Amino acid sequence: MNIFNAGVIMKAESLKIAEGVYWVGALHWDTRSFHGFSIPGTTYNCYLVFGDEKVALIDNVYEGMSSQLNARIKDAFEKEGRDEVKIDVFIQNHSEMDHTLCLWETVEKFPEAEIYTNAKCSSFIKAQYHEFKNRELKTVKTGDTLDLGGKTLAFVQAPMLHWPDSMFTMYMEEGILFSNDAFGQHLCLSKRYVEDYDLSLVLNAAQKYYANLVVLGSVSLIRKFDELEDLGIIQKIKMIAPCHGQIWKNPEPIIKAYKEWASGVCKDKITLIYDTMHHSTQKMAHAIAEGIISEDVECVMYFMEEDGADDVVNDVLDSKGIAVGAPTMMNKPFPRIGTTMYWLDCLNFKTTTSFKKALVFSSKGWAGGAVKKLQSELENAGFDVIDSYETTFVPDEDVLEECFKRGKALAKSIKEE
User: Fold this and answer.
1) pLDDT tens-digit readout, 93-137
2) 96 carries an active-site annotation
3) CATH number of the domain that 281 lies in?
4) What Gene Ontology terms describe what this protein does at the molecular function level (predicted)?
């Protein structure tokens, strides 16, 4: 009996990405937020690998996406000329709910199937889904392999890329790295490969994804690249198939980008972040920007009345410096800047191999306090605050000239690196 013929299911096709390997994921056209940052939709990529003896499903989908998954699995079996849908092995590279909310629904259709993951992921799955408490999950570690019959899957633990339970699965014979969250992007496009679109579109999405989800694991990522080289895996990677966004038929651009982001390779660029109440801090920000520009350094400006912290960190990632300004309110920084400060601290840019320089500025009224607080928070978040400047009420020409000079000095300091 074909279990996926029972009931009403949607029609959706799989995509063959290699001999006996199919993308069977889900397109989430309508979502506009993930982990609190804005996205233009996303995908939950899953992959079927047909061996001569066993069939494996790598990763799963989010809530409400199982009808797409089921339809694509059925289509892949039909394309392989197999009448019966039978999955022998489930592989979970990561336990977060966007990859596991439909896992039990899928697994219970195949009670004899084996489930493979790492020890940390196993404990996370059982803590999130109590149905799995009495279900055996086979644990694997780096160096372990699984033979599907003519197709060998090798496992590599990848903690903090981007959770402690993350791992990679490598189809050795074809050099396909199923990387889960690493190397992904939040995009929902009608074609599956990076190469179907302008490379800059995908790399820009990958940069925002890295800045918001992976930057905390930058030091771990550098070590992981070394490990993959020592294991002889990175030299064999011909394709990277992540769990979100586009598949990399040519993995070189994203591997290069990840190495640069993890190593702190940045542009001659300063991200200027500010908020204002009565336009005084805004005037200071614009003057500082002019000083930065005068040194032929790129300046990206964010006004936090309207802009989102998730976009700010995308530019912070490849900036050598930042400038942060907010007026003083009740002896503290204007509260609207707080989301950005929490975001920077949460992502912890000090885990990269270099420290970004920072300038703090503010307009106060009868008392100060914003500069001291902003400086302390930026230093805790891993920034090197090399300058601060505060004025009282509305800046005059002398103050604006001083702001210009401070911006110019910050720009010169990053060019000297």
Assistant:
1) 999 999 999 999 999 999 999 999 999 999 999 999 999 999 999
2) yes
3) 3.40.50.360
4) electron transfer activity; FMN binding; metal ion binding; oxidoreductase activity
